[in-house]
Specification:
The complex is a heterodimer of chains A (320) and B (232).
Chain A (H helix, E strand, L loop, with lengths): L1 H19 L2 H10 L1 H37 L11 H15 L5 H23 L5 H25 L5 H9 L8 H20 L1 H7 L3 H6 L4 H23 L5 H12 L8 H21 L8 H21 L5
Helix pairs in contact in A: 1-3, 1-13, 2-3, 3-8, 3-11, 3-12, 3-13, 4-5, 4-6, 4-11, 5-6, 5-11, 8-11, 12-13
Chain B lengths: L1 E10 L3 E9 L3 E5 L6 H8 L6 E6 L9 H7 E4 L11 H6 L5 H10 L15 H13 L5 E5 L7 H15 L5 E5 L3 H7 L2 E6 L2 E6 L1 H6 L2 H6 L1 E4 L2 E4 L1
Parallel strand pairs in B: 3-7, 3-8, 5-6, 6-7
Antiparallel strand pairs in B: 1-2, 1-4, 8-9, 10-11
Classes of the chains: A mainly alpha (320), B alpha/beta (232).
Amino acid sequence: MMARALIALAALACFAASLLLPWESLSTLFAADPDLGWALLTELRLPRALLALIYGAMLGAAGAAIQALFANPLASPDLTGATSGAALGAVVTAYLIGLSGAFAMALGAVTGAGLSLLLLIGLAGRRADTSTLLLAGLAITSIAGALTTLALALAPSPFAFYDAYAWLMGSLTDRSLEQLAFAGIPAIIAIVWLASLAPALDRLALGEEVAESMGYSLARLRIRIVCLSALGVGACVAICGAVGFIGLVAPVFARRLTGGHPGRAILPAALIGALLLSLADLLSSLAPLGRILPIGVITALVGAPFFLWLVVRMRWRMQP
Amino acid sequence: MSLVVATDLALPARLEPTSLSLTAGTLTALVGPNGGGKTSLLHALARIGGASGEVLIGGEDPARLPPALRNRALTYLPASRDLTWPIRAHELVALSGASPEEVSAFASRLELDQFGPRRTDRLSTGERSRVLLARALAPRPRLLLLDEPTANLDPLWQIRLTALLAEEVRGADRAALVAMHDLDTALRHADRIIVMHQRRIAADGAPADILASDVIPRVFGIRRTAEGWEAA
């Protein structure tokens, strides 16, 4: 409980910091014109800080649920192809179909993420071993990536590549309150619903057969996790682009707080995900490079070595 | 009076339509050669894998019960002792949904206290078996479905577990159906033996009657002599 409270406090501190920092521009603006200062705070910084919390929480919760479902600590929304499927869905909707409104793109992304996860289950099987799962996820990610590039190349707009690139790398900046609602509402519904599946996912740890004998239907569980992860992650990807590795890293730490219980780790993973993405967002805006780094770059730079560390640990047969 | 009544249980390609009933207070051994259908019958009774047919325990269909009550109707112990996630042993027993008193009672009866806080991946297979047995026994269900419960246990724990099962079931409003390979244990400790062969019940009766009939040589290809079992 103590650890969870500390994580929540740290996430709140990051949230407050991303509202207030950089301090000079905010204080200067408030001194010159309080209305403008207030607008900077509520219309620019608030959506960004809230998106970091919600998107991070969504990735953590979906990662924990997907790992519990596949009984594999290396499964996550990005490594299973769900994130790239969502990006493909959003790109096709915006650039080929020509519907670039937040709702249409979110719908496209949710469909793309759902189809990717269903394809993964079809390819890798229900309780996939690590290599099959990762290879199938890699194949889906590559296909979705190639199709995304193809869709952008075929797009009528000559600026499609340039426009889409910054978004695809993951970005929380310059998002409106309306866009926040389109990502946040589906994500919060998905997180709460996923957390309610915790008892079933914990029993799944006893084996599929035992869980079924206890009255938990694996088929129903599978379809719920696919739909909820697709809903939440898809909506966030449509608004903020693809952010990797949070869904992989957060559940690993969360299970340390829950004595290894995979289902009970969903809410702590959401907390840790919120903290990690808020930290990454702070880093991206405060890095002394004179410009804002895409947030996906930061999570990948930190997350990829962690992923390698997990793989090496698993090779030594020490499951996290 | 029959505690468990199962009618027309079937699993595609695994179990031919089978009906059976189990009396309260009895321990029934389920024996048969590999692939005979022992595990499939346990699965069908536990409603695993889309089994057809009807199961009533004390007149109630367990499939209609919510998970919180279903563990009081039946629990199932699979033959595999593999677990996907390393969980602490005493927390695994608590996943049974039994009350904390029941969990700690069975943890001490199976002597889990010494390794309760340890993770299941750091236990020996025999220790893990005892943890999984405690999970199945703790809710004190009316029907116990156990697949090879003594596999991986050392001789002392095999004896202790057999005694524990008899103590739990005999004289209680409960029944146990236990799949096993050891015919001697079945003949000595069970009240009744069901022989599975080619995905259906080949024989069903008291141990003495099963031993006296020709079913063991016919199904297993072995016979009992003064020295023990030998190929028929």
